[in-house]
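Example for tutorial group B:
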């Protein structure tokens, strides 16, 4: 029989688990990551109208493609998706009637544009959790939720698809941590970004364009064996020391800004340390992180 005392003395693995949102946030700014994912802070006013519209679009798309997987006729699965959007809509605090109508109309337009899809749907909203790096004593586990997985006759294996709702035309890159996580989870060197555009004056072929991204195998291996463990070790140091340093180069990028920067309410990082917590209490509330929640910004 195993000796419990001897087992207790054996060196133990240090397991670190995170998803692409946490990983990307830490790479960009450890302080921002700490506020958002350790302290679970979100603005008092809640999420933006754009994010809520994107969430509704995802609800409809999930139902639509799940019905496609089950062999449901196009017209019926389109109605199923619309009904799912309408059922979820009352939970969206920021959306008005015209916003919900916009989501429904855009969803109908999307379905009509994509009704001739012939790929096989393997899964929708697939949660994964897998070991991506293991060298004693560090074991890194990545998690996430993939919107859609498909099989196509001309390609081997499963291709992950990520739905991206957008109000303007974004550029998407294989450098995205999120996309690399999905490619690793599906053991794929290919990923499709499925655009769901809310632009009023843009033609359907651009609003609903699909971008195919490819990943060099060596780049994926570098990511798994060097990049991920480097930042994982840095994250462990930050947690052990309870110090998450700011990265001021990430505060403002064009018209995008960190929610803790001085673009909003005068900022958090710009004021005396003694005043930061009271100001956080005033402008932010605690809300547990939901990894299934979709942000409309690219390259999350």
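The residue assignment follows.
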């Amino acid at each position: 029989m195993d000796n419990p005392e001897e087992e207790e003395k054996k060196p133990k693995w240090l397991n670190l688990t995170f998803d692409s949102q946490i990983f990307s946030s830490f790479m960009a700014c450890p302080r921002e990551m700490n506020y958002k994912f350790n302290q679970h802070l979100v603005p008092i006013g809640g999420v933006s109208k754009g994010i809520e519209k994107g969430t509704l679009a995802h609800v409809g798309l999930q139902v639509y493609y799940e019905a496609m997987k089950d062999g449901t006729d196009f017209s019926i699965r389109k109605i199923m998706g619309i009904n799912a959007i309408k059922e979820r809509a009352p939970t969206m605090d920021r959306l008005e009637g015209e916003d919900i109508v916009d989501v429904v109309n855009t969803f109908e337009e999307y379905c009509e544009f994509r009704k001739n899809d012939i790929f096989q749907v393997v899964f929708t909203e697939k949660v994964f959790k897998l070991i991506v790096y293991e060298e004693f004593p560090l074991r890194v586990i990545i998690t996430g939720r993939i919107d859609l997985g498909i099989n196509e006759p001309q390609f081997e294996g499963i291709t992950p698809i990520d739905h991206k709702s957008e109000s303007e035309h974004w550029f998407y890159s294989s450098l995205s941590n999120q996309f690399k996580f999905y490619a690793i989870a599906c053991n794929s060197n290919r990923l499709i970004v499925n655009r769901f555009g809310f632009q009023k004056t843009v033609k359907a072929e651009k609003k609903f364009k699909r971008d195919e991204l490819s990943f060099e195998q060596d780049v994926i291996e570098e990511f798994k064996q060097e990049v991920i463990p480097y930042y994982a070790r840095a994250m462990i140091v930050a947690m052990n020391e309870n110090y998450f340093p700011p990265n001021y180069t990430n505060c403002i990028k064009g018209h995008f800004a960190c929610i803790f920067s001085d673009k909003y309410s005068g900022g958090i990082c710009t004021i005396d340390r003694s005043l930061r917590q009271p100001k956080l209490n005033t402008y932010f509330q605690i809300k547990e992180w939901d990894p299934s929640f979709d942000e409309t910004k690219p390259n999350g």
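Residues 217-241 form the longest helix (25 residues). Compare this with the pattern of hydrophobic and polar residues in the output above.
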